[in-house]
Each structure stands twice: as C-alpha cells, then as structure tokens.
Amino acid sequence: MRAFKNKRAAWAALFILFQLGLAHIFSLLYFYQSGVYPKTFVSQFFTFIYWFGHFGFLAFILFLLLWLPSRFFAHIVYWRRLITFFTTFLLVVMVVDSFIYGQYRFHINFVVLDLFFRGQGQIITFSTATWMIAYGFLFALWVLNLYVAEKIWVNIDVLRGKPFFKKMIIFYFVMFLSAHVFHAFADAQYNSAVTRMAGVMPLSEPLKAKSLFTKLGLVDLEEYKKRKLLKKSFADSEMIYPINTLEFKGENQKPFNIIWLVVDSLRSDMLAPDIMPNTYALSQRSVVFKNHFSNSNSTRHGIFGLFYGLPGAYFEPALRSQTPPVFVHKLVESQHEMYIYANAPLTKPEFDQTVFVDVKNLRKKSQAKTVDGRDIEINNLLIQSLKNHKSDQPFFSFLFYDAPHGYAYPANYKKPFAVSSDQFNYLSLNVNSDPTQVRAIYKNSVHFVDSLIGQVLETLKAQNLFESTIILVTGDHGQEFNDTKLGYWGHNSNYSQYQTQVPLVIYWPGKKAQEITYMTSHFDISTTFMQDYFKVSNQTGDFSSGFNLFDSQDRKWILMGREGDYAVFQKDQIIVVSPTGDYELLDPSYRPLDRSQMRTEYVQEALREMSRFLAK
C-alpha cells in the first residue's frame, strides 16, 4: 500500500477490494440459480481462473472510475457516501441479474431495460413481495457498506502498511491473463464445455483469436466452416415482401367476421375443462390443433410470426421499412372494421409500426393501473364494439390478454385453485423450487382470462354474430415451471415445448369439429386465412414461411427465434444457434445430444427461409 500516497486512493482501493469479495460471494448465485456448472475438469479449471480474473478486472475498472473523479469533491464524506451507495447499487443489480440469468439464460441488457422502463411496468412486472425484498436487501447492504467504509477510513494509516495488496494485484492479473488465453484456445478448438461457462458471468467478453490460431493450424476447419454458416445475419438487408404481387380468386360474397383472442404466456396444457371451461366448450365445436407451436418463446417474435407468417429475423427489416403483414393489409383494404385492443402498449414491441402500421386511429395503450384491470378494460371495449357493430360490414378483432404473463387476477376473484398467497417472489425461483404454488397462481390467472373470453362468446351469441364469426384462441408463446428440471422459469429462455407449444382453437363456421395431431406453427395461421378466407391464388412461398393449417403434409421442422438466436425445432431434436454461430444439439428434454446427429440440411433450409424475403 506504500505506493498509494494519496489517502483517498488508498481508501478507494481497500473499499473496492471489499466489494470484490462480496462480488465473488454473490456471483455464486449465477451457478446456483441456473444450475449451470462446469462438468469437465478443463471447464472447472477455466471457471476457477476466470471467476477470479474477470471480477478482478471489473473491480480495477470500477476503482479507476470512482477514484479519478475524487479530486473534484471538496467534501470527502460526501464522496465516500456516494461511492458506498453506487457500489451497493451495482451489487444489488448483480444479484438481480443472477436471478434473471437463472431463469432466462441471458443477462440484463438494453432490450430488457427498454421493455421495463418504456413498457411502463406493463410488459415486465414483479410482485410487491419481490420489490420489498429488493429494497430491503439494498438497504441492508448499504448499511453494511457504510459501516465498512467508515472502518477503513478510520484505520487507513494502519492498513496502508499491509503488504498483501501488491500480491493480490499480481494474483488477479495472472488469473485475468491466463483465463483469457485459455478461453481463446478453447474457442479455437470449439470446446463449448469451456466457452459456455464464460457466458455465465456478467459483462463477459472473453478473448477470441480464431484468425491467429487458424494461421497456427490449431483450428478445426470443418467446424469453423459450419459455425461461419450458422452465424449468418440478415438484419440489415432490405425486405422484399411479398415476393410477387398477390392475386385473388374473388372476394367472399358474405365474408365472416374474425376474432383473434390471444393470451400472453398460454401453455398448451391449459386447454382443460377445469382451467378454461369456456374455451374448452368452444373447442368441442371447433378445430383443435393438438400439436401447435409458436415460432418463438417471446412476445415480439411470437406475435410477429402470427400475423406475418415469417420468422422473427424479419422483425427489424419490417420495422425499418414499416412493411405491414399482407393479412392485415388485405383486411384494411377490404374495409374490415378493426377492433384492436391490447393490454400492454403496442409501441413496445413496436407493433404499431409493423403489425398494425396500416390501421388508422390505432389504440396503442390501455389506461387501467393493474394487469387484470387492463384485461377487463380491453374486454369491455370489444364487447361494446360488438354491440355497436353494423351487421353489413365485416370486422376483425385482435384481443391480447396479459393476465397469465403477470400472474394476475382481481383480488375478489373466486379462485378455483387453492393458493397460500396471490403473490410470490419471482426472483427466488431456481432449479430446486417447488412449482406447485406458482403453477396454481398461473392457472387461476388463466381461468380469469377464460372468464373474459366467455363474456365475448356470450356477447357474440346475444348479438347474433356467433354463427358468422371465425373465432381463434391461442397464445403468443408458452410458459415453463422448471419442467425441464434445468432451472428455467417463465419464457424467453429456451426452445423446449414448454415455452413454445400453445393451444390453438379455431371455430370456423362450415368447418367440421375435429382434432388435428400433426405439427403446426404460428406461421400457418395467417397463411390459412389468406388462402381460405381471402382466396389468394399465389403459392404460399410468395408471402409466408408457413403452410395451410389444414394441409396435413409433414412439417419436419419449425423455425423459431428471438433477438439474435434461432432454433430448428424437430420432434426428436432441437438445434439452437447463438448469435456468434455457436450451437447446441438437444433432445426434447433439453439434454445434449451427440453433435454428429445434427441434421445440417434442416439448418441450411432454415437459413434460406430467413433470407428469402430480403434483397440479395
């Protein structure tokens, strides 16, 4: 410490060292919450040295950021208190991030923050209990840091003489350098057991040096070519959609009305008489698709695929060009009344500039303060629209409920499933948590939404609209309750059936009630309406990645995706590709398979599908 002649610098160094110790302890939550542990000796060794080196480097950067501005503070007490609060806040953010990583396998990023703040609490929500725990933890940790900070300042002259600091700097530097060299070599060898462990840590950007190792002959060239193929990105290209001008065989003389009732986070196994009695009753006179999947595990791309019939890779090109889906464009062109009511804002994700860009006077935001209140609000708006509807003009309605996503229902709602509390600490869920109570709360929220759907169905009957209306009920994606036993909760974190399979019920006057068991996807829905409702004569490939729902041809794979990554979902295996081109081959239970079993031809077909509608 003799090198630190400045008392403030000495204090900052010792205080950051204490924060480093806390960070090491709290970082263990990343492994505990996610259940992701190094399984081989090599990956264990790498994790050990990277754990020290990575957090040591972050601590060094933090020291520079906090110490350098200290000369501008005349009052040293204010400076110390500001630093203690700031570092406390960073530690709390890291703890929260560990819980998010445990459930979703990604860290806090700008997309998450944007959805949280710009979504105004309607897209990403936490219970009151979760907020209370977070605030309590923040306060307790801040008190601890204030105490330690004061003790260090009072005893700074004694601590300055300790020789351990220089040795610790050398130790952390060696760990940092060794870990990055180790990772660069493992990355060149495509040792995913090692490289995936770096992703567990926050703010992790380990060294990669494939070009250098290629020159040295240390890279598997065949694997390198395969990864380069998988890494292709098309987000910056211009969208050409539809590929050819659409032609139609002739308009319906008396077109049906259309209602799409979409429920956020609706699992396929929720279609049961005790959970969704109204929807289940409707299903008995409808076409039920028993093996239906969303094209994503997220709302942004699930809704996009539902309307466009295209992979989520086209979301950004569609947003830039503000290209509407051909289905919605045709609805507006044919003068359908448009009743679009959503719980969460239609501005984030930007559905107002994509899916509904053609809709005039679009209602973009609901007013109620609670999730269940907004579901009631949009339901009442649709019911009023149905009562006021002119019978000589067809309508299209899209209702987007959110209660299951927010685990919400009114306080006085008669709950069919017993729960000890209507709230739970979402961030406490991990691989060892019992899902019973969480699942019961979720099922109550689904039952609540079904009661609203029942009101819509009764209004249709009362207004003599039922027999002239096509009614569709589905979800944007599924919802997991650690079904894979890998610590996944919610959605947006994997492509297993629990996060992607959703119910699909279509009541279509004139079509016989039946159950369809072959695999279908959201890509097929707008495709079917374009063919069977609007009588488009083009081949489906001109405007969609899907098939007609009633076309029983075998769908060998379904393309799924979200920001940056994508998956090729098959009955017996799932190929998951990261933004970097790294990939995993998994069985339906999300356990690794031998990579030699990967069907590369399906990946090549998927890549073509993600580029067909872009300018060459």
What percentage of amino acids are in beta strands?
5-15%
Largest sheet: 7 strands, mixed
Q: Rough shape?
A: globular
State the strand order across the main sheet.
4-5-1-6-9-2-10
The number of E-state strands comes to 15
Distance between the termini: 61 Å
Number of helices: 20
Which spans have pLDDT < 50 for at least 5 consecutive residues?
A: 1-5, 119-123
Radius of gyration: 27 Å
Mean of residue pLDDT?
87
Structural class: alpha/beta
Range of helix content: 40-55%
Q: What's the short story on this structure?
A:
The protein is of the alpha/beta class and 616 residues long. 45% of the residues lie in helices and 10% in strands. The protein is built from 20 helices and 15 strands.
Walk me through this protein's architecture.
- It is a single chain.
- The chain has 616 residues and is α/β, with parallel strands linked by helices.
- Helix content is 45%, strand content 10%.
- The chain has 20 helices and 15 strands.
- It has helices at residues 7-34, 41-67, 76-104, 110-118, 128-154, 156-159, 164-188, 192-198, 210-215, 221-230, 277-283, 299-308, 315-321, 326-333, 371-388, 403-406, 436-462, 497-500, 523-533, 600-609, and strands at 257-263, 287-289, 292-293, 337-342, 395-401, 469-475, 480-481, 489-490, 504-507, 514-516, 520-521, 558-561, 566-569, 574-577, 583-586.
- The strands form four sheets. Strands 4-5-1-6-9-2-10 form a seven-stranded mixed beta sheet. Strands 12-13-14-15 form a four-stranded antiparallel beta sheet, with helices on one face.
- Helix 1 runs antiparallel to helix 5 (128-154).
- The protein is globular.
